[in-house]
Amino acid sequence: MKKYNVQNYIRYKEDLKASMPEDKFYDYYTRDEMVIKFMPLVENIARKFSTSQQASGVLSINDLIQIGAEGLIQAVDKLDWINKLEDSDDIEKTLKSFFSKRIKGNLRRRIDMARGNIRIPEHKLNEIRKNNGKDKKMVEMFFNSIFSSIDEEIISDNGNAAKTTYADIIEDKTEDYNKELLSAYILSLMEKYLHPREYAVLRYSYGINADKMKAKLIAEMIGLKGNSAHVRVSEIKKEAIQKLIENVDHSQVIDYL
User: Fold this and answer.
1) Please, what is the Cα angle at 253 between 249 and 257, to 5 degrees?
2) What is the pLDDT of residue 166?
């Protein structure tokens, strides 16, 4: 996640809290009160979008919140109270569904514009997203099998975590593969898509062509300090794996699946 102006964000939260309208029936909200009422929904949706350079270009989380707010305002202005709400059994749920679709749509359009100079029609981008959904599952399967599943501990019947991992007990019926070649290939993907710190954390956490290190030692190596530095290392590790899943094309891993 790119850095953003924390002071502006804190001021935004304070202003939002101070101007939040009182709870009342939705018929009695003014236009401005309706916008403010659902601003927390905007932030919740905006934070689900990645702010990496590849995913959103130059946009930070503050930019995404602002863009989402624009979508919310447009949605409030288009709201048809008679047709949309009077027949609804759950008005709040209907409003959230109505607003969410337009907030997400506005965010996707602006992110697509910020990612590059080539303007692809939105209907084509939607087709790409749908097609890539299946392909991304393959990429996720690949990296989870390489990283995440290795560290999963088996939970015994009494609820205690056993030391044996799933990788130790599942019989591998596949033919032997060149581990050195696979490790070198994974490192090349990591070097291409990850920040140097993410690269180091992932490499030494799993011992890829290197000695495996504990989180505290990795924290010292990359310059993290404090009692919770090892926790941050674990967070960076998860973020790095997710970053690979989001950015690596399925054609780059399909031969190994």
Assistant:
1) 135
2) 43
Q: Helix, strand or coil for residue 60?
A: coil
Scored b (16 or more CB within 10 A) or e, 153-178 reads eeeeeeeeeeeeeeeeeeeeeeeeee
3-class DSSP assignment, residue 224: coil
Could you tell me if 61 and 51 are in contact, meaning their C-beta atoms sit under 8 angstroms apart? yes
Give 149-157 contacts, CB < 8 A, sequence gap 24+: 150/206
Question: Which residues share a beta bridge with 161?
Answer: 155
Domains, the chain, with CATH or none: 6-115 (1.10.1740.10), 130-256 (no CATH)
pLDDT in tens, 165-189: 444 444 545 445 567 777 888 888 8
How many CB atoms neighbour CB 228 within 10 A?
11
